[in-house]
Every structure is written in structure tokens, then in C-alpha cells.
Amino acid sequence: MAKNITPRAKDYAQWYVDVVREAKLADYAPVKGCMVIRPNGYAIWEAIQRQLDRMFKETGHVNAYFPLLIPQSFLEKEAEHIEGFAMECAVVTHSGLAQSDSTGKLQPKNKLEENYVIRPTSETVIWAMYKNWIHSYRDLPLLINQWANIYRWEMRTRLFLRTAEFLWQEGHTAHATAAEAQEETIRMLHVYRDFVENYMAMPVIHGEKSEGQRFPGAVATYTIEAMMQDFRALQAGTSHNLGQNFAKAFDVTFQNVSNELEYVYATSWGVSTRLVGALVMTHSDDDGMVIPPRLAAVPVCLVPIFKKDDEKARVLETAQRLARDIRAQGLDVRIDDRDNVTPGFKFAECELYGYPLRIELGPRDLEAQQAVLTKRYSREKLTLPLDQIAAQVPEMLENIQRDMFDRAKTRLTEHTREVNSYEELKEFMQADGGFALVHWAGDAKDEKRVQDELKATHRVIPMNGVKEKGKCILTGKDSPQRVVFAKAY
Q1: Cβ–Cβ < 8 Å for 136, 257
Q2: Is the predicted pLDDT of residue 3 greater than 90, yes or no?
Q3: What are 116's strand-pairing partners?
Q4: Taking each helix axis from N to C terminus, what angle separates 422-430 and 444-454, rounded to the nearest 10 degrees?
Q5: What DSSP designation does 377 have?
Q6: For residue 79, is pLDDT > 80?
Q7: Contact between residue 281 and residue 173 where contact means Cβ atoms under 8 Å apart
Q8: Would you list the DSSP string of 34-99?
Q9: What is the number of alpha carbons within 13 Å of residue 431 lying toward its C-beta?
Q10: Has residue 83 got a pLDDT over 80?
Q11: Domain spans in the chain, listed from the N-terminal domain onward
């Protein structure tokens, strides 16, 4: 157990913050509610960005960039949208600063004719531009994604999971028909599910959000919900069918094949740096980060061990040759050849930073023509001949990736259960908790009652759930299938 990391069993919330800070993923910024993403954390975000960007482009999307500042009048055009974000908006009211004659302190100088909002999301500014770009059915579909930063004024923050400023991607698409927009919404939900399960090794339940949990201005919202190690849910990504709401608000029409004017149909979808926090809470332990190999910037750390100069030269020469052979397999390798720290310090740092595979190589290993390999997630140690390591490393990393997913999948399965009454739900949430599969036919007011009383929320209506009829555990009304309730981040 790392010295400066609180054990999960003692205080899970503090454990999470300790891992993020000790593993140098992020730190608190001097701006209230904001964070600084450090190189270790940003490397994970870059890996997430790189893989998702490839998947977006494979499905026909292209990248663009839109302004950070949004005219306040734009947000006022879609009533439900502004109602959902109004309390989180940061507003720019002046341009320039000037020194006060009396105090010498800087004061806002020029009052703007119209206030600007630092983007809490970009639907409004993007649809203002789409009005200029879309005229005919030949202009559709329009499939654009933006990698950007977002600002939502947050009073209670937690590194990566909820901060005032965060990084994300937001896809915004326009379509000629409702069916095409719905198809796009579901397609991108499955892109997120594919990425999160196959790269983050994080199993999810995917499906639709309830009416009370929809994105402001959406016709339907779909989500992927993951289970953390404390059995709470984390919304890992969302995809929204926006119908014609934003097209009508910004008067975005097109001439269809019958030469008639129609409003276009819209979608939006996004994930954020919250995924880095999800990665921590799904896989990491009391010694630090545990990173799935497919997301690790450096999947292999090679630690040469030496005491004397003649040992150093021989060990480093072999380490560099081994690293070249592994890189030839398409994998990156870090050689930790520092001589101002002990091997034990290097091993502890490897565990703290979450390198998936560690290779130890010392003078005795050279004599035996072997090296010791340690899997970070399981701490399993293997001794392999030097001439076999490079060829076996790719398969070992794939096995680690699979085993990490299987372990998380077992957690999800073992802590998801059917609950058949409100009292049983209360008992379940008061105990260890997890994902409760309940029959539900309540409205937003009923959901709020459950949240107030049990601190649990309606998470998702599973798309692959069994269509089993029953009675709502709260209202007694007919229910077509079970939905997931859970405590959540």
C-alpha cells in the first residue's frame, strides 16, 4: 500500500483524490473549481482522444472548432435548453480592465452591448452556423465533431469527475429525416460502448434515460452507465436525439427532394475527461493507478538493476536491445535508468503510475539469460528467457486487457440484482448497494422522491434488458420492463 494513499476500505472518496494526486494525474488549480491536468493524466486523455477520434472518422465524422463565447441571446432561443444550463453559466460582461484611480486595483472597463456565455455546451452557436451551411438535402447529413473545453459553474467539485472547466468532445449532426437522426444517435451510443469496453476495459449497461433525466432540449437521451469499485454508477457517455428543437429555434431548414422546405433533425453526443476519473475508480488500487494496456501511453517499463559501473554498462546494453525488440512489436517502452534512486523506489513508482507490465533486469538475470516480468493489475510475476520476451509481450498485454475487463464485468454482474419492492430497494441502497433492476412507471416527481429519500437515481432503461412486464415499485402502475436505479457520481 502506497504511503500517501488512503486505503479504499477506510475512505473511498479520499482514496480517489489521493490516487489522482499521487499518481500525478491532476491537481487543484488556483481558479476555484478548476483543475490542472498533469502530464500523466493528459497522456491518458490523449489516448482516449486518439482512439475515439479514429472511431469517429471511421463513421464519417469530421472535426471543426467553434467559438468559446456564445451570445447570451442564442441560449435564450431554446427555452428548455437555457433552463437546464442557466445556473451553471459563466457570463462575460465587459471587455478590458483599467486601474481604479482611488485604489489602484483593476476594474472592468467596457460594458458589452450583449453578454457572452462561456460555452456550457455548443448546440446554440453550432446551430446558428448550420443555418448558413444547410440549404438543400444535398447538404445532409452534416456530421461534425468538436474537441474543446467547457465551463459549467460548479460549487462542489472533484478532480476529473466534476470540475468547472473540463475537456470533452461534442458531436453535432444534422439529418434529413427523423429515422436518420435516431440511427445516428444509436450508432454513436454503440461507438462509446465499444470504446469504453474494449479500450478502457470498463463494462457498461447501455440504454435510454428517463424523461426526467434527459439532456435539456432533447427528444431522447441514451447513456452508457458503468459501475465503480464502490458499486456506484458513473455516466460514462451520452448520445442525444434532439429532434427538430434546435432547428426550429434557429430556423434551420432545407429543401427536400420534393422541393419542399423542412426543418432538419439533429443529434449531439459527448464524453469528457470524466472518463479518466472512471478509469481510476474502475481499476486502480491502494498502491496507485492500474491502466489497461490499450490506453497506456507506456505499456512496458523496463527497470535495469545495477550497483557497479561495469554492471551498469552490461545491463543497460541488454535493456536497450530488449526495448528495441519490444518497440519493433509496435509498443512503447520506458527504460528507467536513473541511478539516483533505488530499484525499490522504481518498482513502487511503476505501481503508482500504473504501467501495465514491468520488466526487471539485473546482472544475475544476464547470467541466466532471463528477466522477471510483473503484471501491474494482478502482481503476477513471470520469469522468461530474454530471447522470448519481445515476442510474448503483445500477447501478455492483451491477456491483461481481457482479464481487467473480466474482473470489472464480474463486479458489475455480482452487484446487479432484481429488486421487487420499494422497501427492498431501500434496504439494498442502505447496504453495499449496486445496480438495482426495478419495475418503474413513475414520473420525474417520483424519481425526485427516490433521490431525496434513498440518494439513488434512475440511471438507464437497458436496451438489452428482458421485456418483462410488472408493477412499478412506487406507483403500482404497469411497467413494461425493469430499469436501473443506483447511487451515482
Answers
A1: no
A2: no
A3: 71, 92
A4: 40
A5: T
A6: no
A7: no
A8: -EEE-HHHHHHHHHHHHHHHHHHHHTT-EE----SEEEHHHHTTSHHHHHHHGGG-EEEEEEEEEE
A9: 11
A10: no
A11: 12-93+110-283, 298-399, 416-486
State the pLDDT at residue 174.
Answer: 98
Query: Which grid cell is 357?
Result: 507490465
Alpha helices in 284-377 (DSSP H): 309-327, 343-353, 363-368
218: alpha, beta or left? (left if phi > 0; alpha if psi -120 to 50): beta
Domain 12-93+110-283 and domain 298-399 have a common topology: no
Class assignment of domain 298-399? alpha beta
CATH architecture of 12-93+110-283: 2-Layer Sandwich (3.30)
Helices 274-283, 12-22: axis angle to 10 degrees equals: 110
Task: Give 95-143 as a DSSP string.
Answer: EEEEE-TTT--EEEEEEEEEEEEE-S--HHHHHHHHHHH--BGGG--EE
pLDDT 10s digits, 299-329:
999 999 998 888 899 999 999 999 999 999 9
Asked if 373 and 392 count as a contact pair (C-beta separation under 8 A), the reply is no
Residue 408 is which amino acid?
A: A
What CATH code is assigned to 416-486? Answer: 3.30.110.30
Round to whole Å and give the CA distance between 165 and 90.
Answer: 11
Kind of pairing, strands 106-118 and 233-243?
A: unpaired
Please tell me the distance from the alpha carbon of residue 230 to that of residue 225, in angstroms, as a whole number: 14
